[in-house]
Amino acid sequence: MIYQRGLFQGAVGFDLFEQSWFPEDDVKAVVLLIHGLGEHSSRYEHVAEFLTSKNIGIETFDLRGHGKSDGARAFVRSFDEYLQDVEIFYSRVLGRHPDLPLFIYGHSMGATISALYVITRNPDINGVLLSGILLKIGDDIPPILIKMSSIIGKYAPKMKTTKLDANSLSRDPKIVENYDNDPLNYRAGIPARTGLELITAMRRIQVQMEKITLPIIIMHGSCDKITNPDGSIDLYEAVASNDKTLKMYNGFYHEIHNEPEKNRVFEDIFSWINDHLGNDQEK
Question: Which CATH fold would you assign to the domain 2-275?
């Protein structure tokens, strides 16, 4: 396996940390992976190890305010800043691998970013993989906080609000322990402005779901308390793609790639990518 890392300049001059994992030879495809809120891209190294064993490369980066990238921790003033960073990174990946099939794979907030990016930018890719997308708020977020988000986000943008409960990530206690002890994870309350921008992004997607025409696989744990699985069902029903798949993993929590049965998820991801390597549908 070939591993590389470095920095690139995102929107508004932020230095963002990027990394990639590739098989030694015979690369079949490239996956551009976007991580979730409060975490970082290195948490997907085990996903990359699996996919590289199947001759698929991974390109990823730490979102602004996350991991080893610049920016106030977990803070974003506008969701479009995420989209601009993804656009810059997408261009870099496309430039490095112009002749390979390319897929976008996002988890949680990363799936929300991915969906809105596809809607607003219509990238030339072979397909979209979404895991635990945030389109409806999960049970762990108090309804009163959602109602107050517009006021708090405007007048106290960096005010700390609700804190993610790591116990809702996975049924594997080791995953929970590692998450809480990882210094690169953000473990304080979500900044109010970030929460507001997330809610605004969700609403933007909800009224434009039919604009997604690319092949898409939507995956969600049925017992996810962080992001509501009903959001994935709504998305599946609304997208206009003729090639769409919904995978609901019974009993799984939020991070389906970190559950005890994660290998089943990995195999589903690989199988779907492998089936779309030569996709000739209109992009």
Answer: Rossmann fold (3.40.50)
User: What residue spans define the domains of the chain?
Assistant: 2-275
Residue with tokens 């002890």: 181
HSE at residue 118, side-chain half, CA atoms within 13 A, is 31
Could you report the per-residue pLDDT of 154-175, keeping only the tens digit for each? 767 788 888 899 999 999 999 9
264 has pLDDT over 50? yes
Per-residue DSSP letter, 67: T
40 catalytically annotated: no
Q: Give the pLDDT band (50/70/90) at residue 19.
A: very high
User: Length of the chain in residues, anyone?
Assistant: 283
Q: What would the pLDDT profile of 231-246 be if each residue is shown by its tens digit? A: 999 999 999 999 999 9
Q: Which of 40, 97, 107, 254 is catalytic?
A: 254
Contact 10, 16 (CB under 8 A): yes
Of 217, 219, 222, nearest to 252 by C-alpha is 222
**Paired tokens of 98:** 């112009």
pLDDT in tens, 85-125: 999 999 999 999 999 999 999 999 999 999 999 999 999 99
Q: Is 224 a catalytic residue?
A: yes
Q: Is 92 helix (H, G, I), strand (E, B) or coil?
A: helix
Q: Which of 20, 41, 69, 108 is catalytic?
A: 108
Q: Which of 93, 96, 168 is nearest to 105 (CA)?
A: 93
Catalytic option among 20, 35, 131, 224: 224
